[in-house]
Structure to design on (93 residues):
């Protein structure tokens, strides 16, 4: 039951981030302010894929696990690249 709920939330996050990113890609105003929203989309993409990877693991579905595990890994790299690390380090020091 918990795995199903996690899987459903993962699908919503993953598809939602994809749909919004595609809609935003077509919107010129969004392109101009995309840096602040790119972090949110990357976070939703990563979390959705990671939740689906967990769901695939709970089903013992290796192929699904490899796909979602890879997707979440790539999503994590994209998310880390969008984090404002320089601003955070400047505030700390």
């Amino acid at each position: 039951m918990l795995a199903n709920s996690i899987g459903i939330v993962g699908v919503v996050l993953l598809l939602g981030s994809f749909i919004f990113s595609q809609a935003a890609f077509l919107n010129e105003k969004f392109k101009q302010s995309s840096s602040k929203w790119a972090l949110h989309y990357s976070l939703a993409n990563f979390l959705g894929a990671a939740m689906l990877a967990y769901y695939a693991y709970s089903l013992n579905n290796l192929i699904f696990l490899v796909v979602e595990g890879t997707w979440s890994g790539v999503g994590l790299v994209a998310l880390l690249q969008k984090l404002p690390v320089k601003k955070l380090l400047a505030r700390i020091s």
User: Anything to note?
Assistant: The mean pLDDT is 83. Residues 2 and 55 are 9 Å apart (CA to CA). The two ends are 46 Å apart (CA to CA). Helices lie at 2-26, 28-32, 34-58, 62-82, 85-92.
